[in-house]
Task: inverse folding
């Protein structure tokens, strides 16, 4: 996995050396209202991170995570992840969370854009999916701003705080990423 640098952030690959930083972030309040964050012990989490694939490419199956670090202050603000399931070759699912004090500054959208670009430029993944509960307006706005398309609602598609919940499914295909970024590039060139 590679470190990814964006305008204001450094996305640090999560490995055994910084797993405890992510674990501490995951214990914070305000992260579980709209999503299920696993409640592993620190040791169990470290074991799981150690068993993940080390290389991120479209053939690797598993969970890949990066710490969102604010470049200026070196503070760890949250995480962004990609999960490649064994039944969905060529497709990854993005996830992200920020600690409450870091929200509202565009950091999550910047991190998501960085990961999406990394995935489409560095691998031959064909599609990135995302999902969130309909009530998660911040997450929905983020996904729309980054260029994800809302496709459908899946009834009882996830479990949050022990209860089945509906989820909105978003997608970004390689074609739509290329079209969007090609258009941005052309706009830049033409002034
Ligand atoms: C979802 C989350 C990462 C968004 O973080 P954030 O800092 O608000 O995101 P950004 O600042 O990058 O904002 C992204 C967009 O959402 C909008 N937004 C943020 N909070 C909003 C809110 N409460 N209501 C409406 N829009 C909101 C921003 O205006 C921005 O849109 P824009 O680019 O059109 O201006 C953050 O709220 C969070 O960590 N929540 C808890 C964990 C979670 O729910 N994770 C996602 C699970 S699907």
Result:
């Amino acid at each position: 996995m590679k470190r990814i640098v964006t305008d204001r952030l450094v996305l640090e690959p999560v490995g055994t050396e910084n797993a405890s930083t992510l674990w501490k972030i995951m214990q914070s309040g305000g992260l579980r209202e709209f999503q299920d964050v696993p409640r592993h012990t620190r040791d169990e989490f470290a074991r799981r991170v150690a068993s993940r694939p080390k290389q991120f490419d479209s053939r690797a199956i598993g969970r890949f995570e990066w710490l969102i670090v604010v470049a200026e202050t070196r503070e760890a603000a949250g995480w962004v992840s990609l999960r490649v399931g064994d039944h969905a070759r060529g497709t990854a699912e993005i996830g992200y969370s920020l600690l409450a004090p870091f929200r509202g500054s565009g950091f999550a959208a910047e991190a998501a854009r960085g990961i999406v670009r990394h995935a489409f430029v560095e691998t031959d993944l064909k599609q990135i999916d995302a999902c969130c509960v309909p009530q998660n307006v911040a997450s929905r706005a983020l996904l729309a701003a980054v260029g994800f398309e809302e496709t459908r609602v899946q009834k009882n598609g996830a479990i949050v705080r022990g209860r089945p919940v509906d989820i909105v499914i978003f997608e970004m295909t390689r074609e739509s990423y290329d079209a969007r970024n090609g258009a941005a590039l052309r706009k830049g060139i033409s002034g």
Q: What stands out?
A: The mean pLDDT is 93. The radius of gyration is 16 Å. Residues 31, 34-35, 96-98, 103-109, 132, 136-139, 141-142, 145 surround coenzyme A (CB under 6 Å). The chain has five helices and eight strands.
